[in-house]
Structure prediction request, 466 residues.
Amino acid sequence: MRAKKLAVAAAVAGLAAAGLTLPLAGSASAASALKDDFNGDGYRDLVVGTPTANSVTVTWGSSSGVSPSRSVTVTQNTSGVPGVTEAEDEFGENVTSGDVNGDGFADLIVGAPGERVTDRAGGSMTIVWGGANGFRTGGMVLNAPTAEDVRFGEGASFVDLDGDAGGNLAVVSANRFWWYTDGVPGTAFGPEVDFLPADVTLDGIVGGRFSNTQGSDYILFGKKGASGHGWAGYLRGGPGDIGHSYKPLFQSAESGAFDEAQLAHADLNKNGYDDLVLGDPEAGDGGKIVVWGGNAAGLGADGWPSRTYDQSSAGVPGEDEAGDGFGASVAAGDMTGDGYADVAAGSPGETVGTVGAVGNVVLLKGGSGVLGGGTSWHQATSGVPGAPETGDHFGSAVRLKDINRNGRADLAISATGEDIGTAADAGAVWVLRGTTTGPTTSYATSFNGADFGLGGAGLRFGTVLR
Prediction:
């Protein structure tokens, strides 16, 4: 690959094994190929980012699901983790994962775009090494490669960029796109072609197999222009000059930047390519989601138009009402085990009965054609823990992943406006198990920040689910 090597190396400070004094992850047996199995026990783990508390909580997957009793919370004050917690850091504002150091265990990759760094641009990315006993072997930190970067660490992805079968960490600041050499990040590289529009402010990045590119493609997203309309751009990867194959993908007609909660990807139609789902919650009356089909030619190619769904679309439960915020969060994964990924979309402003802004989550079935066969879930649904209260915002974030290894994705849902005792907007998370017919409330579980030693008004536990 031709690449424009920086004159300055990336600011990389690796820490050796420091003996993190974190709880054991359980009886891990062997390393796992799963990119979010941090202890190598063969179960995917659920991650909750709480940037207001500068923390990331990992709940270990198991045959019985997840529980606060099998978890660990990581901060920059955790022994062995680089840095020191400061109020403005936003540690946990975004989270991704992958086996960065090639030891067979997934590693936790955490953005802190508000971090202040002496003599450098602000922002950082921290990688905490996974292992058989959890996070006990330290980590490393990356700072902005140049002084021109703003809020380095706004988003990250760990996939194969150039098709050589090695994972590359890609990181965005508010105004730059960077990638690193295979595996453990060393030198940072910038694109050969400066493709980003000058008036774009980035909020994140996702990587996936959206085309037959040798390597992975990327979706960069945030806002564009002085009015701050949501924006997404499509960047093809591969062994060529990074940046030369870029095109705008979508711009919202309404103000409001796209963020991590509003993008997801998986193979919805079982054609071997990832499809992209983007939520546009301010569109129209009650919001919408837009789906682009992955295919050999790439997203948005001729013959593969995008499809739009709102709550007035056939098969989508509910009504298209002002303020619903349908698409404020989206997730994709196969919840029924039929080989087709399904889509979950949150409407955190949905009124339930006569109670405003309780929030709702719609699950839409994937298939060979369009999405359909939808069901909806909220706190007034029989079997879902809790009660519908004004301003709960159930569906603030959603995630679909198989955490109990039964071949069907489980649905994780957050309500960042949930009050816990007298603590307003403390936030909480629910997990519903996947079955051949969709979510079930049997064995439903819920937890909040206080279960992990986090608490207080405005915590907004569940801001990020990964």
